[in-house]
Known about the structure:
Helix content is 18%, strand content 25%. With 172 residues, the protein is of the alpha+beta class. A hairpin with a 4-residue loop joins strand 10 and strand 11 (149-152).
Amino acid sequence: MVILSSHHPHSMDATLEMTCHCKMSCDSRRCACLKLGQACKSNCSCRGCKNPLNSIKNLDCLNPCLLSNIKAYQKLSNRQLSQAQELPCGCEEASLQSLIDGYECSDCGDEYRYSFCWKMIIEENHTWHCETCNQCREYREWHCKHCNKCTYGLSLPCEGCGRKSDIAKMIG
């Protein structure tokens, strides 16, 4: 059950706050807070709360890949999160936790993050996470709304239905 509450009900600009009333631990997408990508709050009346987002320090930095794979993240130990990983550029190492949050190499300036979908470090600007397919994709792929699946080639027609991407329509 979802409750929208405000601190001052008669105020026009009252801040609406989402709360949940979960009875089964808040660890599924039925939880209103988890569905919105937020931790449960003190004014939620959930019982036995196990919302995996409660343990995330900075929810504003969550990428869609992490959100889709939050249970895999939860299984990581502090030792695993602090373990150094070599960056693909070879310039330096960074902790897995910093790669989950997004990391910029201090030497070359390339940006990296950890992809839970591919179980590897990826260059930030070369990939994206399709929230419909729930998978990380190469930057040259796009999601066809008609076929409801990802296809290769931003300027090429969809492999399934032949329709063009929005980018292909703009350029020609």
